[in-house]
Write a structure and sequence with these properties.
The complex is a heterodimer of chains A (about 425) and B (about 300).
Chain A lengths: L1 H13 L14 E10 L3 H9 L4 H8 L2 E11 L4 E5 L6 H8 L7 E6 L2 E2 L5 H10 L1 E4 L11 H5 L1 H6 L3 H14 L15 H14 L4 E5 L7 H18 L2 E6 L2 H7 L2 E6 L2 E6 L1 H6 L4 H8 L3 H4 L2 H4 L6 E2 L4 H10 L4 E6 L2 E7 H6 L20 E2 L4 H10 L4 E4 L5 E5 L1 H9 L4 H9 L1
Parallel strand pairs in A: 3-8, 3-9, 6-7, 7-8, 11-12, 14-15
Antiparallel strand pairs in A: 1-2, 1-4, 4-5, 9-10, 12-13, 15-16
Helix pairs in contact in A: 8-9
Chain B lengths: L14 H46 L2 H16 L2 H16 L3 H31 L1 H16 L2 H12 L3 H25 L3 H9 L4 H30 L1 H5 L7 H10 L2 H29 L7
Classes of the chains: A alpha/beta (about 425), B mainly alpha (about 300).
Amino acid sequence: MNSHKNSRSNESSSSDDTHCPNKSKTPLIRIKNLYKIFGKDEKKILEQVKAGKSKDEILAETGHTVGLSNINLDVYPGEIFVIMGLSGSGKSTLIRHFNRLIEPTAGEIEVAGSDVMQLSSKDLQDFRRNKMSMVFQRFGLMPHRTVLENIGYGLQVQGVKKAEIKQKATQWLETVGLDGYANQYPGQLSGGQQQRVGLARALCTDADILLMDEAFSALDPLIRSEMQDQLIELQEKLHKTIVFITHDLDEALRLGDRIAILRDGVLVQQGTPVDILLNPVDDYVEAFVKDVNRARALTVETVMQPQICRISAETIGEAVLQMRKSKEDFGYVVNKDGYQGVITQDTLDNVETSDYSNVLDASLLEDVPAVQSDALIETVIPEMLDNILPLPVLNEDGEVEGNLCRSTLADVLSDQPSSEEDKKSTYA
Amino acid sequence: MSDSSWLSEIPQLDRHQLLDIRKTLDGAYRSFSREYGDNIEAFFDPLLTFLIWFEKLLLGSPWWLVVAVLAVFAYAASRSWKLTVGVAVAFFLIGFFGMWDNTMRTMSIILVSTLLAILIGIPIGIAMSRSDRVQSTVTPVLDIMQTMPAFVYLIPVVMLLGIGKIPGVIAVIIYAVPPVIRLTNLGIRLVDKEVLEAATAYGASPTQRLFGVQLPLAMPNIMAGINQTIMMALAMVVIASMIGVKGLGQPVLKSITNQYFTLGLMNGLAIVALAIIFDRISQSYAKRTLQNLGGH
């Protein structure tokens, strides 16, 4: 699972635009100026909201609740877009606008180029059948239908033939690892198993877009991370567009290609996980981010120094020349077999000028272990502690991409106490 | 009435005015029933034919066949031998004590009334569950139906249709239909919102939602309503006998007027036996078919 997560984050940070990894593509879902006000007289209150009155003022004066206020977001094909916020921030309300389970007070919703707000109730039904499927926090399974019938529900609603439903549903049942449970009823399954059924039901309709409303929040932590793994694994094969709602930042960081943070019905920040983690826009986001164990959430490449001195010389003389061009007093020696080791200025200074024509061989190099760019920071800390020199960072092809030194690491991690320490200090 | 007495006495219409009101209303209703009585009777004719046919069927069949059929029903519904044997023994005893014919008559009218009550009640319950306005109009009507003494609404029914089976069935239905309406409404309203939302999210049409989700999930409540309806229909048997419905109610009525304690008790017990049998069969059927809804 690591490899997947990290290969995706590779993509996102290799493009300079941290805001959206798929800038070239057109968005699959586009939400524009969306407002939702709960109460009797939504339209009238809308003017006041637009005029800039706060949520609390409106509630106190008119008894109307502002659910969502001026939401603008784009979701691109093939990404996992996470919407995060505390309870009451409007995230579940927002996701229900995507398929119009909730009608907005004002705003535009566009999916795959068509305006969802203009659909007639018949078209809306077709839209829900074919374009989107949904996974619910409390599973939303039908207790009177067997597991297999539940998985095939979307197809049954579409009027697909029974034999075909059975065949497809069985296939998805096996994919989510519930073989043998086909004829059980949801009530006989554990929470995790039930949500697998929910997931299989969503996948069974072959819809491109998957809406997941706090899908894993009701599960216990172990099962939750198991389900996250499974989702990541499936997404690798299926490349769905997933809108995922959660209140758990760790989950958001783990799954999300991009994250939007919602507070009191307002989108406060949108960006890649690294963006959110390293550049929180305000106190609210910062408070969220504070408790995250960064060593576990960030990969090496997000914090490494890309400017390094690569020594590709064959002889010592060439190495000296290359070293002079760089400001650093050490260099990473690479040849066609990849990274070889570190050579320092000191070592080169000690070599006699007469030996400059000699081949640069292993005896001169310091043996510094390399780390993979997609490794989590947590996993490289031991190597970091064993070596004084900055560690070279290798990309997937084995090329040296940058380096990671102790001070960088200290900077990134010391911004906040790690969560374990936090707990200890509160209990002490 | 003098002007100052309203403090000590409640202001009251005088006797003539009251009489006028009664006369006008009674007269209007009477002329209405003269005008349309025949048409309304004609409207209920198919029902009457069916009632008579069903009663004759029950009375005409040999007793052992009826007992056997009832036992098979009991077993099919409950899959319990104990209940099946209980049903057979109960019916045998009813026959043994000479109440067979009356029991068959009562059973036929109860079954038909219950069936009609379900056919009328479930759609009304569904309509109530879909609209708060319908709910707020129907609820007081149901309250009236349940609290108004049965004798009171027997009067217009008898005025309109005379005495006999049809007014009996109508009276039984009026008395027995509220529980199935109320519990259908309640059952549908109590269906888990998220399950319903899931159905909507997958593009289920309103009809698919009703028959695929709402009704099946409301079934435990609807079955409880049907059960109550059966029980109330049985309770109505004695009152219905006052307007000429034959069956177990008539001997009870006779025993009240003549103080025949044993006759009353035996027929009363036969009604109780019917009630218990219907109750157990419908309950165990509901329990058996709906066991997955409990989420155990």
